[in-house]
Amino acid sequence: MNQKHFARPLAKLIAELSRLPGVGGKTAQRLAFHILEMEEKEALSLAGAIADAKRNMRRCSECGDLTDREPCAVCADAARDRSVICVVESPRDVAAIERLREFNGLFHVLHGAISPMDGIGPEDINIKQLLVRLRSNDEAVEVILATNPTVEGEATAMYIARLVKPAGIKVTRIAHGVPVGGDLEYADEVTLARAMEGRREL
Amino acid sequence: MNQKHFARPLAKLIAELSRLPGVGGKTAQRLAFHILEMEEKEALSLAGAIADAKRNMRRCSECGDLTDREPCAVCADAARDRSVICVVESPRDVAAIERLREFNGLFHVLHGAISPMDGIGPEDINIKQLLVRLRSNDEAVEVILATNPTVEGEATAMYIARLVKPAGIKVTRIAHGVPVGGDLEYADEVTLARAMEGRREL
Predict the structure, then answer these.
(1) Range(s) of the domain holding residue B187
(2) Of B85, B88, B91, whose CA–CA distance to B136 is shortest?
(3) B96: which chain A residues are within 8 Å (Cβ-Cβ)?
(4) Residue of A34, A44, A66 lying closest to B21 (CB–CB)
(5) CA–CA separation, A161 vs A175, rounded Å?
(6) What pTM does this model have?
(7) Which of B24, B157, B146 is nearest to B84 (CA)?
(8) Over the stretch B42-84, which tens digit does the pLDDT of each residue have?
(9) CATH number at residue B97
């Protein structure tokens, strides 16, 4: 879309917004004009929230989830069951499972999945740290593999299972209650709960 | 959506994003996580673009359009035909008409439309400045009313027409009719009636 007639700060804002996922040219324009019509305080509050979140949110050195403290709230919570670790691909998946209020164990965020097609190998995601955690955690009894039900997610689950099982730790995979080919993040809560409940040992 | 488990900077970012038009809770979450996974430079660039646009874009004192200079690029352009002024409701409408590259006159942005239901009267939108412009512009020959084809837009057009016509300036309204490329059978009755009414000899 031609933006020649837009003043430079506006054109820049539209360009930046259209880099967000699911935001096309028209949506970016709509958002940009809306931002310009917001109260200055509100707009700066949005800008500040982006900068603050980016500056203050780090990966927890324990589990890899995004957090503003070290270790993260889940890892630091004494009431959490340290014998179960749920392995997920992304912080979004942690949020989805936490929303259930049914899982009380710990998490481990891989930040991706093994995908040879995209040149992503086991060493490119947060697997090594999982093994370090399991080695130093005598309480660990079970690892739940909650990677996405996609080819990459399955491959990643298989890979981790092969590494962890020899240590005598039970390895389970969430049940295929989640639609195959879908994204964990978009599963409805009942489906996700069923999947957690129906996990099977690998 | 419960965000209790989100770290505060993330929860704040999600809250700010979900105030944007068309951005619900799930979309705000998706955008927030995406922003956290962006390069720091990119995220700060987005935040900066919002703050800069908000700080540097003002209403042109002439036409009311959003601009980073005074007067705006259109008002300052000597090649523009100063005898025609196109009145629109919002800066978005200016962008839409500029995109056509067919109109070479000036604009006037009302920043809204008269809407008694919402308590918006003629004095709440940028009408007074239009009259000031017309009085000081001897070249003005035609005012094109390009407000939206809604009840409020029509009422606003009628109101402005009544004020401007006595000054001997031609007042026109953009045509209402069936959209080009559309299907006659799907046009609503009011639009179709207007299209019939506004028929022209070929």
Answers:
(1) 66-196
(2) B85
(3) none
(4) A34
(5) 15
(6) 0.75
(7) B146
(8) 999 999 999 999 999 999 999 999 999 999 999 999 999 999 9
(9) 3.40.1360.10
